[in-house]
Amino acid sequence: MNAGALSLRARLFGSVGNTLLTVVMLALFAAWLPALLRWAVIDATWWAASPATCRTAGGACWAFIHEKLRLVLFGRYPFEEQWRPLAALLLTIALVLAGCSLRFGWRSVVAGALAGILAVIVLMRGGVFGLSLVPTDLWGGLPLTVFLAVGGIIGAFPIAIGLALGRRSELGAIRGICVVFIEMVRGVPLVSVLFMASFMIPLFLPGKLQVDALLRALIAITLFSAAYLAEAIRGGLQAVPAGQEQAAKALGLGYWQTSLLIVVPQALRLAIPAIANLCIGLFKDTSLVGIVGLTDLLLATKQALGDPQWRSFSLEGYLFVALLYVAFCSFISHYSRALERRSQPGA
Amino acid sequence: MSAVAVLPVRSARGWSDPSFRSLATQVIVLAVLAGTVAFLATNLVGNLEARSIRTGFGFLWQAAGFEIGQSFIAWSPSASFGRALLVGLLNTLVVASLGIVLSTLAGFVVGIASLSRNPLVSPLARLYVELVRNTPLLLQLYLWYAVLTQMLPAASAAPQLLPGVYLAKSGLHFPVLQHGTEPLLAAVLVGVLAFAGHGLWARRQAERNGVPAKLWPGLLLLALPVVAVALERAVTASFDVPRPTRFGFSGGGMITPELTALLIGLSLYNAAFIGEILRAGILSVGRGQLEAGAALGLSRGQALRLVVIPQAMKVAVPPLASQYLNLAKNTSLAIAIGYPDLMSIGNTIINQTGQAVEVIAILMCVYLALSLAISAFMNWYNARVALKGAS
Q1: What CDD domains does the database record attribute to this sequence (chain A) (predicted)?
Q2: What is the structure's pLDDT at B249?
C-alpha cells in the first residue's frame, strides 16, 4: 500500500507471485500492443471516399467519423442551419464555464442562466428574427445531450433543495410526501420514468395541452435527478453542525432565512463530491433518452452506423463517442476536485 | 398584571401561532396535492374515453400474440399478457442475479489489481476504471452488442473456445447433458449442505481451540460431489454437443448474443464501480491491522481473511448495496439491445393494448419490490458484518 517506498525492482520482482504477474503482463503486452497499434494507427484509414478503401486497408476506419461527423454531432438538424446548434452549444458551454468560475454573484448567475436558456431556445427553434423554424424532433446530437444534462441539473437543484429540507421538516405531511417521492423515484429505473413521462404525461393533461417529447424527457430527467440530488444534499445537511442553526435562530432569523442563508450553503459545500458524481451520472444517463426516441449523441451515432455501407465500423464510431463522453465527464470530476479544494473552510 | 410577570407575553393568534401555522401549512399542502391528483385523474378518464382505451387489468388474461426471443419458462404466442410479464420478470431476475455475481467477481479483480504494487498492473486497472466510469452504460452495451453480432464469424467459421463451446454471431453455443440435470443439481445441493455443515463445525472448533479454521477442507467438500457426478456423467452419459453447419448450429445449448452482451456490459461496467468500493474499503483499514495480525502469528492470507477483510466489508457494504441496486435497475437497458426483459416486454404490451397506465404501474411496483428486496437483504448482511459494539 505504501508503494512509493519500494524500489521499482522490488515492485516488479519482489515475490514469486509478483514476478509471475510481471511476466504474464509483459507477455500480454507483447502479444496485444503491436496488434492494437497496427489496427488503430498503422493500418488505419483516416480519409476515404468510400468504405471499400477501409476494407482493403484492414485497420480501423476513422474515415467513418470524418464522413458522418455532422450526423453524429447534430443528428437530423437541417444541414445548412447547423451553425445554430453549434452556436447554442458553445454558448451553453461558455455560460456553464462562466457560472463554474464562481466570479459572479447569484443574481447575475440566475439572470445569465435565464437569458442563456432563452437565447438557446431562440437559436435552436428559430421562427423569429428571420431564423427558419426547426421543430424539436429534429434537434439532436451533442447539443441535445448537453442541453438535457445542463437543463436537468439546473431544474433539479431547486426541487432537490426543497425535497431535502422537506424530508427534515417538522411537519409530518410534508415530510411524508418528500420521503415517498424520493424513495419511489430511487426505487425504479430511469427508463421506466422516461416511459412514464412519454406515455402518461399526454394522458394526464387536458386534451388541448400538448407537451413536446423533448420537454417530457427533460421533465423525467429533472424529477429523477432531483430525488438523487435531494439525498446527496440531505447528507450535507446532516453534516452541518447543529450550532449553526441554533446561532441563526438566536440572531432572530426565521426558518427560510436560516435554511437558505446559513444551512443550505454549507450543506452544498459538504456535498460537493456526491453532487459531482451525480452530475457525471446524469450526463451519462441522458443517453437513455434514445430509448424513447430522442436523437441524442449516442442515438445519432447509432443512426449514423445504420448506413449499410458503413455499419461494419461500429467499433470506431462508438469509441469516438466514448472519447467525447470521457472528455465531458473528466471535466466535471476535475472541476469538482478543484472546487472542493477551494471551498475548504479556511483555505 | 402581577409583579412576577417579567415579560408581557401576548398569546399568538392566527398565523403567528406556530402550532396553528404548522397545521394550516400541512392542510394547504395536502389540499393542493389532492386537488392536483383529482385534476390529473379527471383528465386521464376523459383522455382514455376520447381515445377509446380500455381500463382495468383484464388484459392480463388475454392472449399476447407475440414471440419472445428468450424464455426460461414455456412460452407460446397464445399465452396471456400476464405470463409474458412473468417471462420478462424471470429474464430480468436472471440477468440481475448473474450480473451481481459476475460484477462482484470482476470487481474483486479490479479492486485488488488497482491496489497492486506491481507498476504494470495498477495503472492498467486505474485506466480501466476511469474509461468505464466516464462512459454511459448504454454506449458500452451497444459496443458489446456490435462486437458480438457483427465482428464474430458465422457458424461455419466459429472459433472453438473449449471443446464443444463455440462463440459465433448467433450466440454462445455449448454442450448440454442429454439425460437431465437432476443428479448434477442434487450434487450441488449436497456440496452446499456439506460446506455449510463443515463451516459451522469448524467455527465451533475454532472458538474452542483458538486456532483459526482453515478454508480449504470446506471448499473440497463443496466441490467433491459435483466433480464426482460430473466425472461419472462424462464417462457414462452423452452430451448434446452443438454442431456447426452452413446455416447455424444444430443441437446443444445456446445463450443469445443479446443476453451475452447484456451480461458482459453490465458486469464490466459495475465491476469498475465495485472495484473502487472494495479498494476504498481495504484502504480504510490501517496497515497496523495487518502487522498486528502478523505479530499474532497469522499468515498473510489469514490476516487478510480474518482481520482486514471483515473490517473492509464494514465500510464497503453500504455502497456495495447501492451499486447492486443500480445494477438491478440498469437491467432495464436491455430494451435497447432487444433482450426481452420486464421493461421491454412491458413496452411491447403497451404498444399492443395501449394500456400504458396499468402496465407502467405494474412495472414500477415490480421494480420497487425488487429494490426493496435487495435493500432488505443488504441491510441484513450489513448488520451481520458490522462490528459488534461499534456504532
Answers
A1: TM_PBP2
A2: 76
The closest CB to that of B332, out of A171, A192, A280, belongs to A192
| Facing residue for B138 by CB, picked from A21, A172, A298 | A298
Under an 8 A CB cutoff, do A329 and B134 touch? yes
Q: Which domains does chain A have, with CATH numbers?
A: 45-77+134-342 (1.10.3720.10)
What digits encode the pLDDT tens for the residues A257-282? Answer: 888 888 898 888 888 888 888 999 99
pLDDT in tens, B107-129: 988 988 888 777 888 888 889 99
CA dist., res. A201 & res. B44, Å (int): 9
Those of residues 139-178 in A touching chain B at CB distance below 8 A are 170-174, 177
Using a 10 angstrom Cβ sphere, with 0-12 exposed, 13-18 middle and 19 or more buried, the burial of residue A77 is: buried
CB–CB contact B336 A291 (8 Å): yes
pLDDT in tens, A19-28: 888 888 888 8
Dihedral angle sign, alpha carbons of residues A216, A212, B347, A283: negative
Q: Which residues of chain B have pLDDT under 50?
A: 1-2, 389-391
Choose, out of B30, B36, B138, the residue to mutate when testing the contact with A (most A CBs < 10 Å).
Answer: B138
Q: Rounded distance, CA A294 to CA B385, Å?
A: 45
Of A26, A187, A280, the CB nearest to B368: A187
- Contact flag A290-B371 (C-beta cutoff 8 Å): no
Mean pLDDT of chain B: 82
| Angstrom distances, CA of residue B109 to CA of A10, A12, A80, B136, B201 | 22, 18, 50, 22, 30
Question: Which residues of chain B does A200 touch, with a Cβ-Cβ cutoff of 8 Å?
Answer: 356-357, 360
**Contact yes or no for A8 and B119 at CB 8 A:** yes
| CA-wise closest residue to A332 among A186, A111, A150, A88 | A150
Which of helix, strand or coil describes residue B30? helix
Question: DSSP string spanning A216-245?
Answer: HHHHHHHHHHHHHHHHHHHHHHHHS-HHHH
- Of B294, B273, B243, B225, which is closest to residue B103 (Cα–Cα)? B273
* Pick among A180, A195, A297 to test the B interface (most B CBs inside 10 A): A195
pLDDT for A336 equals 84
User: Is residue B281 within 8 Å of residue B316, measured between CB atoms?
Assistant: yes
Q: Say yes or no to pLDDT of A9 above 50.
A: yes
A-chain residues near B118 (CB < 8 A): 11-12, 18, 21-22, 25
Chain A residues with beta carbon closer than 8 angstroms to that of B357: 200, 203
Contact in structure between B253 and B177 (CB atoms under 8 Å): no
* pLDDT, tens digit (0-9, with 9 covering 90-100), for B253-301: 778 888 889 999 999 999 999 999 998 888 888 888 888 988 988 887 7
Across the interface, whether the CB atoms of A329 and B133 are under 8 A apart is answered yes
Classify strands B253-255 and B171-174 as parallel, antiparallel or unpaired: antiparallel
pLDDT at A347: 43
ipTM for this prediction: 0.87
Which residue from A minimizes the CA distance to B23?
A: A171
Q: What pLDDT is attached to residue B315?
A: 84
